[in-house]
Amino acid sequence: MKKLADQTRALNAQPLFISSTPVNDGSMMGTWVPGRCQSIHLITEALNALGQKENIRVVDQYHPLIAVWGPNKTRDDANALAGRINKTIDDVNSLAERMRTLKPEGNIPDLAPLQALAKSWESKTEAVKLGGDAIHTGPVGQYMMAATILVALNVDRDVSSATINPDGTVVEAKNCNITGATSKEGRLTFTRLDERSPWPLLPEAITANSLLPEIAGLSRYILTVPGLPDGQFDVKMDGKPVATVSSKALAQGWNMSLLREGPLGERADKIMTLIGELQGPLNIAWRTASKENNHEKLQAAQKAIDENEAKLQAAIQPVPIQFEIAPAK
């Protein structure tokens, strides 16, 4: 890493160290299963020390993630065990019924403790599935990794915010422009054009946020409507229902970054599709043409990449969204 840092600086670029993630095997600090995470812990500590010595920023993914992944995996394993115990109990009870005439039910060993253990887990909170395997997590784990990196880089968490009174008076608009705000028969409508857009999130990010709420906090897309009557309110964007929100949540400032319905979800899906094409088939086509040293194919592959990136740049641009807030039906 020292050699890489020196080479990076020689290019007049700024090096940045990012640690490995933990192995998702249920290890927690000081409780290793069986020892891979302990090795990564020592490597991360050495990386932190090198960063301090060389005045290089270190993004430590390992320690924040093991603090979350470890207990989550342990809970997942325990729930799986409880499920197997319940199945075992069902099998034992079925066998006991058939054997009742031959042997007393009390001859089944340790049935009561097994039942008590399984029952104690019936109401436990389900663990979050990270996807992938212990070393290469799937999209849920990857969103958590991205969030951990962004937190360590101390990125700007605010997308935009707007505060509008129920009568249509615009109190504040930060990083956005509110136009056409009107109130009629308890229905508030307005158009909002943001200067920047929220993090495009797939459904897996919603699952990840339940384990690491920092994900929503990294993309604060806030709407505040104080003074509404107590109750629930339906929110529409561009005429499409997106959520039902309480007057209390709207008064406190509702973070819309996790919305999957309406234009935000459509935008996220479009962006992620383009990125998937860029990282998948377009990347493979370019690499294949490069290895074959086929100039014609390479030009075609680069043209396709350029066209994709132009579409991606267009997709990430903010567009006006029409809001409608009305009492829930």
Q: How would you describe this structure in keywords?
A:
five-stranded antiparallel sheet, four-stranded mixed sheet, 329 residues, 11 helices
List the helices and strands and how they pair.
Elements: H1 2-10, E1 17-18, H2 36-54, E2 58-59, H3 62-99, H4 111-120, H5 139-152, E3 158-164, E4 170-174, E5 176-184, E6 187-194, H6 203-211, H7 214-217, E7 220-224, E8 232-237, E9 240-246, H8 247-252, E10 254-255, H9 262-279, H10 281-292, H11 295-315, E11 321-327
Parallel strand pairs: 1-2, 3-7
Antiparallel strand pairs: 3-4, 5-6, 6-11, 7-10, 8-9, 8-11
Helix pairs in contact: 3-4, 5-6, 9-10, 9-11, 10-11
The CA-CA distance between the termini, in Å, is 60 Å
Tell me the major beta sheet: 5 strands, antiparallel
Mean pLDDT: 89
Order of helices and strands: HEHEHHHEEEEHHEEEHEHHHE
Shape: globular
Describe the structure.
By secondary structure, the protein is an alpha+beta fold. It folds into 3 domains: 1-155, no CATH class; 157-198 and 214-259 and 322-327, no CATH class; 265-315. 49% of the residues lie in helices and 18% in strands. It has 11 helices and 11 strands. The chain has a 5-stranded antiparallel sheet with strand order 5-6-11-8-9. Helix 9 (262-279) packs antiparallel against helix 11 (295-315). The protein is globular, with a radius of gyration of 27 Å. The chain starts with a helix and ends with a strand. Mean pLDDT is 89; it is low at 99-104.
Summarize the structure.
It contains eleven helices and eleven strands. It has helices at residues 2-10, 36-54, 62-99, 111-120, 139-152, 203-211, 214-217, 247-252, 262-279, 281-292, 295-315, and strands spanning 17-18, 58-59, 158-164, 170-174, 176-184, 187-194, 220-224, 232-237, 240-246, 254-255, 321-327.
